[in-house]
Structures are given as structure tokens and as C-alpha cells.
């Protein structure tokens, strides 16, 4: 994990943060469940490629932010700079992304996404 100190995400406003993350990571199909409806009876998050659970919503959101390397800032985003079909598994696509944020560095990452259907690029 990186040893820098971005502004803390506002975990006092979990609803607003949750909605922002759902929008920001819609391409990962990020979903949240509360203990009333979740299978585990805890706060749960799931997305294409992963999932996590916690005893409180604030703890869940903190874990999701950490896993997504997201400071929770309003302008934070991962910009996808390349999309290729996984040569080892045709049902996956490999995304190259660059972090765009006033508080975080512009590191690049590569993520694998389960995406058996054609991507926007493949469709055109
Ligand atoms: Zn950030």
C-alpha cells in the first residue's frame, strides 16, 4: 500500500460516497448490499472480479476504497487507456488504466475483467 496521505474520504456521508462509487465503477458492476438483504447478514460489496464484507458500512466503504486504490475524492478516476482481449482466456478483457486525481499519483494499473460479450471497440 502507498504511504501517502490523501484527504480522508467522508465516511460520515456513506450514502453519498456509496452512490459516487457505484457511478464511478459502473463498468465493474459494483453493487452494495446492506445486512437486511445480504446473504451474510453483513454489509457487502461485490463487483466484477471481487467482493468484500464488513460489520459496518463505514468499514465496508473504507475497504472498497482501499481495494480500488481510490482516495474517495470527488475528482478521482481511473481512466481506461487500453482494452485488449485476454489472449489466455477469451472470456476476459484486459484494461490498462491510469489514475487521474489531484491527490493521488498518476500510476498505471492493469486489471482483468470478465467480459465474454464484445466490447465497444470490438463491436464497432
Ligand atoms: Zn484520488
Describe this structure in words.
- With 124 residues, the chain is α+β, with helices and mostly antiparallel strands.
- The protein has 2 domains: 14-67, no CATH class; 77-123, no CATH class.
- The chain has helices at residues 14-24, 57-67, 120-123; strands spanning 31-33, 43-47, 50-54, 77-85, 92-100, 108-114.
- A 3-stranded antiparallel β-sheet has the order 1-2-3, covered by helices on one side. Strands 4-5-6 form a 3-stranded antiparallel β-sheet, with no helix packed on it.
- The longest helix has 11 residues, at 14-24.
- The relative contact order is 0.17.
- It binds zinc ion.
- Residues 6, 71, 73, 76, 101, 103-104 line the site of zinc ion.
Please give the structural blueprint:
Elements: H1 14-24, E1 31-33, E2 43-47, E3 50-54, H2 57-67, E4 77-85, E5 92-100, E6 108-114, H3 120-123
Antiparallel strand pairs: 1-2, 2-3, 4-5, 5-6
Bound molecules: zinc ion.
Zinc ion binds at residues 6, 71, 73, 76, 101, 103-104.
Low-confidence stretches: none
Q: Report the major sheet.
A: 3 strands, antiparallel
Overall average pLDDT:
91
Q: State the domain count.
A: 2
What integer value in Å does the Rg equal?
Answer: 15 Å
Topology as H/E string? HEEEHEEEH
Give the spatial strand order of the biggest sheet: 1-2-3
Helix content: 10-25%
Distance between the termini: 38 Å
Shape verdict: globular
Total helical segments: 3
Q: What is the count of β-strands?
A: 6
Bound molecule kinds, no repeats = zinc ion
Structural class: alpha+beta
Strand content: 25-35%
Amino acid at each position: 500500500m502507498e504511504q501517502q496521505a490523501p484527504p480522508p474520504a467522508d465516511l460520515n456521508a456513506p450514502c453519498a460516497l456509496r452512490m459516487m462509487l457505484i457511478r464511478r465503477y459502473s463498468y465493474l458492476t459494483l453493487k452494495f448490499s446492506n445486512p437486511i438483504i445480504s446473504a451474510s447478514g453483513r454489509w457487502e460489496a461485490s463487483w466484477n472480479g471481487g467482493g468484500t464484507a464488513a460489520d459496518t458500512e463505514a468499514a465496508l466503504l473504507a475497504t472498497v476504497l482501499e481495494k480500488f486504490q481510490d482516495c474517495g475524492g470527488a475528482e478521482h478516476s481511473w481512466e481506461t487507456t487500453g482494452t485488449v482481449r485476454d489472449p489466455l482466456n477469451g472470456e476476459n478483457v484486459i484494461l490498462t488504466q491510469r489514475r487521474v486525481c489531484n491527490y493521488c499519483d498518476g500510476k498505471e494499473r492493469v486489471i482483468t475483467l470478465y467480459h465474454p460479450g464484445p466490447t465497444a471497440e470490438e463491436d464497432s
